Amino acid sequence: MYTIAVIGGGVIGLPAALAIQKEFGSKAKVIIFADKLSPHTTGDVAAGLWTPYILQNTPQEKVLQWAKATQDYILELWKRGEAKDAGISLQVMVNLSDQKEFKIPEWAKITLGYSEIPAEEVKSYNDKYAKRFTGGFTFVSFIWEASKFLPYLQKKFVENGGEVRVKNVQNFEEVAQFDVIVNCTGLNSRFLVPDLLVRPVRGQIARVHAPWQFHCFMTDEEHGHYIIPNQECVILGGTHQEGDFSTAISEQDKKFIFDGCVKYIPALKHAPVLKHQAGLRPGRDQVRLELERRNIGGKEVKIVHNYGHGGSGVTLSIGCAEEAAQLVKEALKFFVPSKL
Ligand SMILES: Cc1cc2nc3c(=O)[nH]c(=O)nc-3n(C[C@H](O)[C@H](O)[C@H](O)COP(=O)(O)OP(=O)(O)OC[C@H]3O[C@@H](n4cnc5c(N)ncnc54)[C@H](O)[C@@H]3O)c2cc1C
């Protein structure tokens, strides 16, 4: 039997562990090592909106491939009637842009029911909000709440024979006895790999009680606000502060978030606040999803890296997990004598 260690039990690690189980079935023993599990991961702060965001130079064709695979997977869960348990809701998205030359992003074309907002309507938003939006589009998107789907996926993983160990892995030597290591440590890859290209993109949000708010609203202004309903609250966002490692709640950010969101939906002014949260997105110039062969103490160790998903971890999770499982297969095919 092959032995696979997945380091990380968050939005990226759990789907990867499940995809590996699916690929190898009883031929592999998969163990997750994680020092934090839901509700203490970055994903537990996330809004869970399926939309590619803060991905910088990750190639478009990869973004489309990974995001589409995730969308298909969520849709399948929805069709199977598992939406509530898995934390899924389907919502209308209004996305406005203030870019000089408004261009609909490539990924918009794989969304459900995408349509460009006519110029007249954009003008009416500008009149209403005293803004200068140049264009926009609407589509129907999924919200996939990590604080619901992480326990849901973890249960499936354990039912399939997987094991979860709560442990901080200080270095890869500690797990070098495994046939393959899958590194899904998000921001901490900066220190574990170490990879200084990974840096925090801090995000602060507020969770409010506003059950009457049914659609998502988002802009791509430099410091854009967003309003994203979840099953039991509405997320008001948000900030993206490059290089900031603080998860302390900032009073200044609270005000920025409220002032901005209330401008778009004034009734939010009266929505009771349930919680303020701040999390650190694992920013990187590009998502790193590749196989490394590393010499550790004279032995060649195979490490599949899967980190650096920025503000899109939920959106890309399943597509990246499927590709990570293929990289594990490649690692075993070429470098490990068959244990079957
Ligand atoms: C405010 C905010 C809003 C967001 N909204 C969205 C959204 O709407 N849609 C979307 O797609 N994305 C969103 N994101 C981004 C998304 O949350 C992240 O991309 C995603 O959570 C990254 O997942 P990850 O598994 O790589 O990292 P993490 O969630 O940080 O998980 C890392 C895992 O690795 C473990 N780990 C790390 N180092 C070690 C070690 N040495 N030993 C053992 N375990 C270790 C941790 O314990 C944890 O289990 C948002 C993020 C923020 C902050």
TrEMBL record:
<dbReference type="GO" id="GO:0003884">
    <property type="term" value="F:D-amino-acid oxidase activity"/>
</dbReference>
<dbReference type="GO" id="GO:0005782">
    <property type="term" value="C:peroxisomal matrix"/>
</dbReference>
<dbReference type="InterPro" id="IPR006181">
    <property type="entry name" value="D-amino_acid_oxidase_CS"/>
</dbReference>
<feature type="binding site">
    <location>
        <position position="226"/>
    </location>
    <ligand>
        <name>D-dopa</name>
    </ligand>
</feature>
<feature type="domain" description="FAD dependent oxidoreductase">
    <location>
        <begin position="4"/>
        <end position="327"/>
    </location>
</feature>
<protein>
    <recommendedName>
        <fullName>FAD dependent oxidoreductase domain-containing protein</fullName>
    </recommendedName>
</protein>
<keyword id="KW-0274">FAD</keyword>
<comment type="similarity">
    <text>Belongs to the DAMOX/DASOX family.</text>
</comment>
<feature type="binding site">
    <location>
        <position position="311"/>
    </location>
    <ligand>
        <name>D-dopa</name>
    </ligand>
</feature>
<dbReference type="GO" id="GO:0071949">
    <property type="term" value="F:FAD binding"/>
</dbReference>
<feature type="binding site">
    <location>
        <begin position="310"/>
        <end position="315"/>
    </location>
    <ligand>
        <name>FAD</name>
    </ligand>
</feature>
<feature type="binding site">
    <location>
        <position position="185"/>
    </location>
    <ligand>
        <name>FAD</name>
    </ligand>
</feature>
<keyword id="KW-0285">Flavoprotein</keyword>
<dbReference type="Pfam" id="PF01266">
    <property type="entry name" value="DAO"/>
</dbReference>
<feature type="binding site">
    <location>
        <begin position="47"/>
        <end position="49"/>
    </location>
    <ligand>
        <name>FAD</name>
    </ligand>
</feature>
<feature type="binding site">
    <location>
        <position position="169"/>
    </location>
    <ligand>
        <name>FAD</name>
    </ligand>
</feature>
<dbReference type="InterPro" id="IPR023209">
    <property type="entry name" value="DAO"/>
</dbReference>
<dbReference type="GO" id="GO:0019478">
    <property type="term" value="P:D-amino acid catabolic process"/>
</dbReference>
<feature type="binding site">
    <location>
        <position position="281"/>
    </location>
    <ligand>
        <name>D-dopa</name>
    </ligand>
</feature>
<dbReference type="InterPro" id="IPR006076">
    <property type="entry name" value="FAD-dep_OxRdtase"/>
</dbReference>
<keyword id="KW-0560">Oxidoreductase</keyword>
